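Task card 7
Instruction: Convert sequence to structure tokens.
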Amino acid sequence: MTQAFDAAAQQSLLETRAEAALALARRLGADACEVGASVDQGVGVNVREGEVETVELSRDQGIAVTVYVGSRKGSASSTDAGEASIRDVVEKALAIARHTGEDSAAGLADAALMAEHLPDLDVHHPWPLTTEQAIDLALACEGAGRRMAGIKSSDGAGLSSGEGVRVYANSHGFLGSQRGSRHSLSCMLIAEDEGGMQRDYDYTSARDPRTLLAPEMVGESAARRTLRRLGARRPATGRLPVLFDPTLAAGLVGHLMGAIAGGALYRQSSFLCERLGASLFPEWFSLYERPMEVGAMASSPFDNDGVQTRDNVFIERGRLASYMLSAYSARRLGMATTGNAGGARNLRIDAPLASRDALLERMGRGVLVTELMGQGVNGVTGDYSRGAAGFWVEDGEIQYPVEEFTIAGNLEAMFKGLVGVGEDIDTRGSIHSGSWLIDEMTVAGA
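Output:
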């Protein structure tokens, strides 16, 4: 059984230590200081072929201190958030700051922007789970999948459950803290026929363990996904429509957000530099974030600068309406922070939604992509090339599985070529999206 985790006590302790680090930095000569501290505890089990492979009980903590001496910045961190390490971390941060060059963009976010509305966003749901119970759930998940006719073996099932506390404080007097939890259960299976072996997986993930799918449902879904890949062939080569499965469509949103992130913009390493207001998507498509959404996977009332988070619209009726900026990147660009230090939180799409069948019918002939491999995305040019697997579509109907091919294009052309979004929205992560149908990409197969 895991050691009891008293989240309230840990939260109070981290807040006290963060305030102690701020006070020490002031005494030692820092003009400004910010502190981040966290502690996490969890259990993870993996089973394979009905046997326990690994059991991991984890407890991690850490503290990071950033100090400013004039416009010079120094940062140091430690995996020990105890009192004894605070002085060492603060002294190291100050030593670094005194030897670094001046940076006019360095410094805390403006005091007037500090979060004042700090509601409970219902993101902390501990799971009083013993190690034995975790093993039983993983075994039930794998067993349900292995019992499906046609499944040859298993690549394992795993359960992960964790909770933690994070604290951020700075010398403006801001102190914010949040408790959170995350739980997941997954299964990967193997099937075989005369054409060879195939594998696939499925999973469930949530803040609240009561909303996880039943283990048997996850295992059976993993089995169905695996079996449907048997008999895969290489598709024809050509310029074809491509339908991205929801999890992969969320990845396309991720590439967009990387391209409009302040760090990429001020380094001139994005294909969307100086493109505010540009038409990137069809006018029926909008993309926004909801950081204060109750119970969501990435909800937080303050960002990593302590700035109050807010609803942001990044794509409005097809046009790039906003970049994603922290206080530092905003200063480098001569703009204002969007409350996105640490990234976007709870991205949502506003678009007309169509059924999977309707998207396939509109596609006619092309490929449905359910798996991507490799990292062939160039953020500077937007060029996109990935290994893929999925299904061949003819006359609007799935015909057979396909593998060992690549899809290639350019992200900007892909965004403009978006012709439909599916109603099959995947809500397991922080980006909620259905399938995306892109009008044309290069498919390199047989």
